[in-house]
Amino acid sequence: MEAPASLVGQYLLAMPGIGDPRFERAVIAICAHDPNGALGIGVGRLVPRMGLHGLLEELDIDPGKAPDAPVHLGGPVEPQRGFVLHSPDWIGEETLRVGARWALTGTLDILRALADGSGPRRWVVALGYAGWGEGQLDDELNRHGWFTTPGDDTILFDRPAEQRWSAGFDSAGIDARLLATGAGRA
């Protein structure tokens, strides 16, 4: 199976038994994918005991109008760095457009906008990201470690994090409970 040319705006869903505990039942929204590599934000797990208000207070930003939403484990790379994956109705100077579906911002201006009520309509906050070097993600896809499914705003913005993995498979008509963790022998 050959990897698609670009996975931007799609989800990567970790297959059972992927072999890396950091990615068990992972749901990663792919924000950049080209011949040089890929970058995604994990949206399937939460940072324990951390909400947006606590994060804002650590950054000396008054939470203001922002709800105390959960903070996601965005990935194992640079876990101290924050990102907001959001609807494209708010764009800052350093916002990356993720196809026509989403936008990704990693600067303090979006956190200030969330706090004062002028930010995007829909969003998730994450710490860290998942990154792949040149050809690495394509190789992993060819080894069947990941399943891809089209990005879906309902899964991202309306489902609790712990339901996104199975919801991603459901959207492709697959019952995740029936997935095997290993291969058989013939």
Automatic annotation (TrEMBL):
InterPro entries: AlgH-like. Pfam families: DUF179. GO terms for cellular component: cytosol. It comes from the Bacteria. Belongs to the UPF0301 (AlgH) family. HAMAP family: UPF0301. This is UPF0301 protein FOY91_12735. It comes from Alterirhizorhabdus solaris. The lineage of its organism: Bacteria, Pseudomonadati, Pseudomonadota, Alphaproteobacteria, Sphingomonadales.
